[in-house]
């Protein structure tokens, strides 16, 4: 079993941030500074072109650590953040930019490239969870959530479908083509985000992925706006979702 | 202008309930017992076959009064609660029960019957708001919300489309046929509830009504489950929505 190797540590506003590697993959673990007892864990997956410490990640981590006292961990996805890009990465990114410049649909490229990254990232996430559960402040008994939109959904859906330790998940903003078959095997509570005016993802594709989950409890949140205009209150909603399902009372200002 | 005539008063757990009539229509006004200053107001509309004090109404009122310090008012819809049924009411209700017994779609009957009730109920709601704003604890300056699902949406959408004093609304679970044209004139923030496995309302119909609202901020919440299985956490979500838009900080337990 791979172990975490901590490489750096800092703390800001009551939140401890520890950089680590696990099997050579860089990640970050955010925790309450004052955490004495064991606390639930949320794994997060970042979006395409971003990285483990992108503000979308650190902002969500801050909410989960502050409001819930949870631990939060994120890996750099393959080809992202502090990890090298392969020739395959470069080709796919060039294809994506070319499609964008030509006004052609990005979906087919994103779907195939993210599916390729997920093949590598899914086992890395199983190994991450193995390693995190060796830490005394996390352990093996507590509940674990997963939160990832966009590419974080492309990696997260096959990961969660194969990972019985995850008991609640927030997904969204991805296509059904490579993911629906995995989603059909997922039965845990799900919150799923879409943008009603997404310029990349057609409504029927987004709704089809939500439809595919076998979860008896699943909630779809759709907001007016384009792909990148997901409202901030959806992050608060996700935090409340995890608080409800991972077992901690939370108070979030409206 | 019609005035409120208070007819009875009780208080339970810090919430004052005052029965009233306005232009002969019976209603109830729930308020914080300790309300000294003016506070925002939420008008609610009850579902078909229910009445102003149905637990779905009093439960939501309790959340709004307790968590936000708001006033909450509900009228009995025409033919509902303490109001007499007309021959037309009796015929439509018989038609609805017959369709249900025969396993035929209820939608066409509900759509036409609710549209008929809305013709009468919409002016009653304008008069209600006029009368409530004469009360010193409400006044004309504060923000006003509207919250009604099912028949409460059938009455609420045409009401809100014609009522500039309403600044935020929660709707859901109704057909677009009689409502979409009204919804196209609504631009205030909207939260809209649907059930993914609604046995009466087809998905495309529910989504079409959500789509029709012109609001730049609109959120759709869809949950797995049948028509009557709307999760309780959607009531908490609606309360947070009103707290956000009517201007009061709320803390709701997850």
Protein model, in words:
2 copies of one chain form a homodimer. Chain A is α/β, with parallel strands linked by helices and 254 residues long. Chain A is 37% helix and 23% strand. The radius of gyration of chain A is 17 Å and the shape is globular. Chain A has a 9-stranded mixed sheet with strand order 1-2-3-5-4-6-7-8-9, sandwiched between helices. The first copy, chain A, has a single domain, classed as Rossmann fold (3-Layer(aba) Sandwich). The A-B interface holds A 196, 207, 210-211, 215-224, 231, 233, 237, 240-241, 243-244, 249-254 and B 196, 207, 210-211, 215-224, 231, 233, 237, 240-241, 243-244, 248-254. Strand 9 of chain A pairs antiparallel with strand 9 of chain B.
Query: What do we call the CATH homologous superfamily of chain A?
Result: Alpha/Beta hydrolase fold, catalytic domain
Residues in β-strands, percent of chain A: 15-25%
CATH topology name of chain A, in short, is Rossmann fold
* Largest interface summary: A-B, 27 and 28 residues
Query: How many H/I helical runs of chain A?
Result: 7
Radius of gyration of chain A: 17 Å
Determine the oligomeric state from the structure: homodimer
CATH class of chain A: Alpha Beta
Summing up helix and strand content along with how strands pair, one would put the structural category of chain A as: alpha/beta
How much helicity do the residues of chain A have? 25-40%
Helix and strand succession of chain A? EEEEHEHHEHEHEHEH
Major sheet of chain A: 9 strands, mixed
Enumerate the spans of chain A where pLDDT stays under 50 for 5 or more consecutive residues: 249-254
Enumerate the strands of the largest sheet of chain A in spatial order, edge to edge or round the barrel.
Answer: 1-2-3-5-4-6-7-8-9
How confident is the prediction overall: mean pLDDT of chain A?
Answer: 94
| Overall spatial form of chain A | globular
Q: How many domains make up the 3D coordinates of chain A?
A: 1
Using the 3D structure, state the CATH architecture of chain A: 3-Layer(aba) Sandwich
Separation of the first and last Cα atoms of chain A? 43 Å
Number of strands of chain A: 9
Protein name (chains A, B): Alpha/beta hydrolase
């Amino acid at each position: 079993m791979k172990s975490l190797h901590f490489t750096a540590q800092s703390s800001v506003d009551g939140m401890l941030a520890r950089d680590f590697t696990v099997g050579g993959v860089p990640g970050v673990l955010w925790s309450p500074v004052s955490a004495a007892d064991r606390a639930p864990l949320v794994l997060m997956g970042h979006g395409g072109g971003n990285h483990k410490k992108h503000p979308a990640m650190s902002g969500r981590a801050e909410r989960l650590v502050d409001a819930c006292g949870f631990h939060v961990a994120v890996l750099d996805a393959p080809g992202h953040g502090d990890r090298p890009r392969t020739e395959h990465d470069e080709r796919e990114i060039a294809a994506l930019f070319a499609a964008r410049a030509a006004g052609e649909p990005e979906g087919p490229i994103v779907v195939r490239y993210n599916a390729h990254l997920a093949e590598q990232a899914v086992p890395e996430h199983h190994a991450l969870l193995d390693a995190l559960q060796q830490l005394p402040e996390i352990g093996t008994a507590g509940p674990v959530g997963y939160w990832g939109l966009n590419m974080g959904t492309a990696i997260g859906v096959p990961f969660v479908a194969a990972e019985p330790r995850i008991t609640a998940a927030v997904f969204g903003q991805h296509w059904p083509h490579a993911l629906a078959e995995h989603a059909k095997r997922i039965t845990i509570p799900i919150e799923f985000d879409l943008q009603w005016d997404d310029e990349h993802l057609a409504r029927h594709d987004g709704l089809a992925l939500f439809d595919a989950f076998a979860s008896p409890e699943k909630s779809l949140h759709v907001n007016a706006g384009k792909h990148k205009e997901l409202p901030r209150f959806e992050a608060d909603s996700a935090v409340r979702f995890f608080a409800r399902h991972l077992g901690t009372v939370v108070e979030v200002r409206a």
